[in-house]
Design brief:
The complex is a heterodimer of chains A (396) and B (440).
Chain A: H1 2-26, E1 35-41, H2 47-50, H3 59-63, E2 78-79, E3 85-86, H4 91-98, E4 102-109, H5 117-126, H6 136-141, E5 155-158, E6 173-175, H7 185-194, H8 201-211, H9 216-219, H10 232-244, E7 251-256, H11 265-287, E8 294-300, E9 320-325, E10 333-335, E11 356-357, H12 358-369, H13 374-380
Parallel strand pairs in A: 1-7, 1-8, 4-10, 4-11, 5-6, 5-7
Antiparallel strand pairs in A: 2-3, 4-9, 8-9
Helix pairs in contact in A: 10-11
Chain B: H1 5-12, H2 26-35, H3 52-67, H4 75-93, H5 97-109, H6 123-131, H7 139-147, H8 150-155, H9 167-172, H10 179-188, H11 198-207, E1 211-213, E2 226-228, E3 238-240, E4 243-245, H12 249-260, H13 263-277, H14 284-297, H15 301-308, H16 324-335, H17 341-351, H18 369-372, H19 375-392, H20 398-406, H21 412-420, H22 424-433
Helix pairs in contact in B: 3-4, 4-16, 4-17, 6-7, 7-12, 10-11, 13-14, 14-15, 16-17, 16-19, 19-22, 20-22, 21-22
The chains are: A alpha/beta (396), B mainly alpha (440).
């Protein structure tokens, strides 16, 4: 009896899945059903650690023991086809790449050359070369058909804050699942360091962190933090669930902090990378069949220095990497005009030189994924005509 | 040390508000608040300050609804929430933070708590009627107003205390309840240092028998207000701490006045004031100075507040730990912009273990760092900072907020950490969670 039930259920779900897959394959999804997720990595992800260019002969020389080992070695990169790899914590992303649903864009940056987090984040989200009160994604929203009566607002911030990216004239929703507001390990470590001279607060904080499983080695940055599955994956799960609903939002913005790895980078990156990776997997799982209509843009405000600094970390740089993930993405490849890491090839003799523009990725998503008119692209990115939409990022 | 605006606003105030211009003359700024009017805003949904009668009516409404079979009537809870939110919003917004700190201090000295039945919905009235009018008046007047207030009479059970030798005692076999008498001696006035005995507690309890609250719907009783019940009062003179007090309501008034002006009371109050505003272990000379001012002025709370801000020790570096309420209020004042600051503050108070008007016992909330610097409490404080920073990012730079909030009190390493943070949210969290911001 039990077995029969299982068979029936299995058949039923296969049938539903098969039918929806067929439907999507036959007719391209109307723009109103396309899902767009933007993940903001605040704090400047080190593109050379997340997507190590292990094929570049200068990579290991610059990075020393911060270099991710070559594929096949212990703790080595996950190969992306001979030149680039992914950090070993990005196993789900690697799986999506192998399935043709993830694209790595490297040596990419926005048009700004500021190395200030706040200025660069504001410009990244505003989509302009000066600060604005609204974000590029919000300005693009008005070109979408209005949401049907009774449906959620078209776009939603998933998290406590509505990021500048989604602020503006068009109203957006916001939702923060319980448990998604926990502090990440790197910030705990920094708080512990800030209280180091305080005879009252420091011992109490240390004891509290110990009780929660943060060992002294984690706080010293010599060991990665305990796996915290409650932060970003909870946000991504909520986003995926909402985006999958028939009357749910179609556009979501999420953010993940903890990337500003000035010290002990190898240990401190492991946590946020794992969060990102589990979050992307959660998003895919929750979206179910709608994953086919989904594109996820993962961006950060700038990259980090090519050489390591004196505290086993990296400082603020220029170009880095971005990811485009989802069933709607023509993935399984690396998009890069690699500038090289030889000393004469670095931007201002310190950073990875930018050869691609983040705006071209965003514009391509607006044009080819949401199918918005040229006017929407111009509104979203004022004064950015030189950044033309990147062709071919999405499946037919 | 020189009086500075930041120490004035943090030690004596509630933290600096967003956009606040710091006073050039800190002592004059503090003095000015002692002369200012005290008009707390009305709770949402009220056109006049809620009375004790209305508070008790909310209780009755719940009882009657329950009798009708309604599952969870919440008139009293709603009443309490409206009052508490108004008080919390005032803490976040007030431009007279020193005055409000004094209100908080005296309300904690004379703790009433919603943990006891009936008290919750009259807490707002208690502060308005018994505490606020006297924070810059005479201590004896405040003590008398407190001892006559329905909130206290119910909280410490005196409303039903009956003299065993009274007519009511003889008829009903009812008797003394020592609770209020004991706490007035131990917590509110002379303290155990005065060396009173159990016999003194019992005698004082007899002195204030019949101090009660009028019932609803009884002819000749002021519903929901103080009343003296002569038939419940223990007849005859009483001897407390060697002092004779006549029978009748006047005997109780005389006893309270005698206690209010006792040298041991002044020492006790001076110690508590110095501990609250100066340091957990205040310098003895600071305590002695405050006690002397109280003694010389007959318990003038305005005079002792002025003396407080003139203590050399009051301008020393800040060592006190902000209580959870202090911390939440300071954070909300600094970041500003919350649409419902009162509700946000109440939620924060509760999350961090210090819900408003809900102290666990009549001794009130602790005033020593050790009570609040527990590991889990500190982590929660930092998580609250993180949550609040998430709501507030984008309202200005964290460095500017740090300069405003801490000025010269910010350590270089804190400023460096804030300026190097990877996001505005992390930067604000570092500011709100740094050791300097925990001090007052």
């Amino acid at each position: 009896m039990k077995a029969a039930r299982r068979t029936l259920l299995g058949l039923a779900s296969t049938f539903v899945l098969g039918r929806s897959r067929l439907a999507f394959a036959d007719a391209p999804a109307p723009a109103a059903e396309a899902r767009l997720v933007v993940v903001l990595l605040r704090g400047a992800l080190d593109g050379l650690a997340a997507a190590p260019p292990y094929g570049d002969p200068d990579y290991a020389r610059h990075r020393g023991d911060l270099a991710v080992a070559e594929p096949g070695q212990d703790g080595g990169a996950l190969d992306l086809g001979g030149r680039f790899g992914l950090h070993p914590r990005l196993a789900n992303l690697h799986r999506m790449y192998a399935a043709g649903e993830a694209l790595l864009v490297h040596a990419v940056a926005g048009p700004w050359r500021s190395r200030s987090h706040f200025e660069a984040q504001d410009l990244l989200e505003a989509g302009a070369d000066q600060r604005m009160e609204s974000g590029w994604l919000n300005r693009a929203l008005r070109y979408l058909p209005p949401e049907p009566a009774g449906a959620s607002r078209r776009a939603m911030a998933v998290g406590v804050e509505v990021p500048l990216l989604l602020r503006g004239a068009t109203q957006v929703g916001s939702f923060a699942p319980a448990g998604s507001t926990r502090l990440e390990a790197p910030l705990w470590a920094e708080l512990a360091a800030l209280t180091a001279q305080d005879p009252l607060l420091h011992p109490a904080l240390q004891e509290g962190l110990r009780a929660r499983g943060y060992s002294a080695a984690v706080l010293a940055g010599t060991e990665p933090p305990p796996g915290d599955r409650n932060g970003f994956p909870a946000l991504a799960t909520a986003a995926g669930r909402l985006l999958a609903q028939p009357n749910g939002p179609r556009i979501a913005a999420l953010e993940l902090v903890g990337w500003d790895t000035h010290a002990f980078q190898a240990a401190r990156l492991a946590g946020p990378l794992g969060q990102l990776d589990h979050g992307l997997a959660a998003l895919q799982a929750q979206l179910g069949p709608a994953w086919r209509q989904t594109a996820v843009l993962v961006v950060t405000e700038f990259g980090r220095t090519v050489r390591t600094n004196g505290t086993r970390g990296t400082d603020h740089g220029t170009a880095g990497c971005a990811f485009l993930v989802g069933g709607a993405v023509a993935g399984g490849r690396v998009l890069a005009d690699w500038p090289g890491l030889a000393d004469g090839q670095l931007f201002q003799n310190r950073d990875l030189a930018p050869t691609r523009d983040l705006r071209s990725l965003a514009k391509a998503l607006l044009r080819d994924h949401l199918r918005l008119p040229a006017a929407a692209l111009a509104q979203a990115f004022p004064g950015g005509a030189e950044a033309t939409p990147e062709a071919g990022l999405l499946r037919g | 040390m020189e009086p500075t605006a930041h120490i004035a606003a943090i030690r004596f105030g509630l933290g600096i508000r967003q956009g606040e211009v710091l006073p050039p003359e800190p002592v004059a700024w503090l003095d000015g608040q002692l002369r200012a009017n005290d008009g707390p805003p009305l709770p949402a949904g009220f056109t006049a300050p809620p009375t004790t009668q209305e508070g008790f009516a909310a209780f009755r409404a719940d009882r009657e609804a329950q009798a009708r079979g309604e599952a969870q009537p919440k008139a009293a809870t709603d009443f309490f929430r409206a009052e508490a939110a108004a008080q919390a919003a005032l803490l976040v917004a007030t431009a007279q933070p020193f005055r409000e700190r004094l209100v908080q201090f005296w309300a904690n000295h004379f703790t009433c708590s919603r943990r006891a039945g009936m008290v919750g919905p009259v807490m707002g009235a208690y502060l308005r009627d018994a505490i606020r009018p006297h924070v810059t008046g005479r201590f004896g007047d405040m003590l008398l107003a407190v001892a006559r207030h329905p909130a206290m009479l119910f909280y410490l059970d005196n409303a039903g205390s009956v003299g065993p030798g009274s007519r009511a005692g003889a008829r009903r076999g009812a008797g003394l309840n020592e609770n209020l008498a004991r706490e007035i001696l131990e917590l509110h006035t002379v303290s155990p240092a005065a060396g009173y005995t159990q016999a003194d507690v019992t005698e004082f309890a007899k002195v204030i028998t019949g101090w009660s609250v009028g019932r609803e719907g009884q002819p000749n009783e002021p519903s929901g207000s103080f009343m003296f019940r002569p038939f419940g009062h223990q007849p005859g003179p009483k001897l407390m701490m060697g002092q004779a007090f006549d029978a009748g309501e006047a005997g109780g008034v005389a006893a309270l006045d005698w206690l209010a002006t006792h040298p041991a009371t002044y020492r006790h109050l001076a110690t508590k004031l110095a501990r609250h505003f100066v340091a957990d272990d205040p310098p003895p000379e600071a305590v002695a100075r405050l006690a002397a001012v109280l003694q010389d002025t007959g318990g003038d709370l305005s005079a002792v507040a002025r003396a407080l801000v003139r203590l050399p020790a009051a301008w020393a570096p800040l060592t006190k730990l902000r209580s959870p309420q202090d911390f939440v209020v300071a954070a909300l004042r600094l970041l500003g912009g919350a649409p419902t600051p009162g509700i946000l503050a109440l939620t924060g108070f509760a999350q961090l273990g210090q819900p408003l008007w809900a102290a666990p016992g009549p001794n009130g909330w602790p005033d020593m760092a050790a009570a609040w610097a527990t590991p889990e409490a500190l982590l929660r404080r930092m998580e609250f900072a993180w949550g609040l920073a998430g709501r507030s990012a984008g309202t200005g730079t964290a460095l500017a907020a740090a300069e405003l909030a801490l000025g010269p009190l910010a350590r270089a390493e804190t400023v460096t950490a804030i300026s190097r943070a990877g996001s505005q949210r992390e930067a604000l969290t570092l500011l709100l969670a740094c050791p300097e911001f925990q001090r007052r």
